[in-house]
Amino acid sequence: DAGITQSPRHKVTETGTPVTLRCHQTENHRYMYWYRQDPGHGLRLIHYSYGVKDTDKGEVSDGYSVSRSKTEDFLLTLESATSSQTSVYFCASSYLPGTSGSADTQYFGPGTRLTVL
Amino acid sequence: KNEVEQSPQNLTAQEGEFITINCSYSVGISALHWLQQHPGGGIVSLFMLSSGKKKHGRLIATINIQEKHSSLHITASHPRDSAVYICAGLGVYNTDKLIFGTGTRLQVFP
């Protein structure tokens, strides 16, 4: 398995506070992703990165920002946490998603359980 | 309506049974992933396929791109197979992102 870690693994915070989650991979993967997982919704993409300093929004990006200053690190920031952002957050990485016949698999981190009170 | 639908949502089985989980999608995809999420929460990739069939141990995944359907089969199921199984499609036009189904929760009893 690819070496992907997330920190913290658990966090409880209060509404209105900023929160930063960190994803670290040691595989030199170009692509990195942040997802949230909620009951009844499955995994939903928040933001992703296709290279250092290159990021793009996913389907649920409102209230979140990301930064990628190094290949190995991808940070997710909740500007001002709200209770609706209580979720389990997964980071993933891959070499290079391709087209048919060469699509790459994604490797997932262990997840961060965030509770916003 | 989700672009990627899985059925059933929940599945229980006795040890040794043959299990099938289905995944249908309404968008064009170039490849499909099957993922496994264990009760502890970790997610691992089982298969990535764009045509035909792949087999790994007791797991078999098939896909028919034209019919927009994929299946995951587990032969001789075992309690350690208990997990949530998720399918995810890689878009034809946007190959950077996966589109996920909501998962099938499988419980295998001894």
Outline the fold blueprint:
The complex is a heterodimer of chains A (117) and B (110).
Chain A: E1 4-7, E2 10-13, E3 19-25, E4 31-38, E5 42-51, E6 54-57, E7 64-70, E8 73-78, E9 87-94, E10 107-108, E11 112-116
Parallel strand pairs in A: 2-11
Antiparallel strand pairs in A: 1-3, 3-8, 4-5, 4-9, 5-6, 7-8, 9-10, 9-11
Chain B: E1 4-7, E2 10-14, E3 19-25, E4 29-37, E5 43-49, E6 52-56, E7 59-64, E8 69-74, E9 83-91, E10 98-100, E11 104-109
Parallel strand pairs in B: 2-11
Antiparallel strand pairs in B: 1-3, 3-8, 4-5, 4-9, 6-7, 7-8, 9-10, 9-11
Number of strands of chain B: 11
- Main pleated sheet of chain B: 6 strands, mixed
Q: H/E series of chain A, N to C?
A: EEEEEEEEEEE
The topology string of helices and strands of chain B comes to: EEEEEEEEEEE
Radius of gyration of chain A: 14 Å
Give the overall pLDDT of chain B as a whole number: 90
Structural class by helix and strand composition of chain B: mainly beta
Form type of chain B: globular
Assembly state? heterodimer
Query: Strand count, sense and closure of the main sheet of chain A?
Result: 7 strands, mixed
How many beta-strand segments of chain A?
A: 11
Helix coverage percent of residues of chain A? under 10%
- Note poorly predicted spans of chain B: none
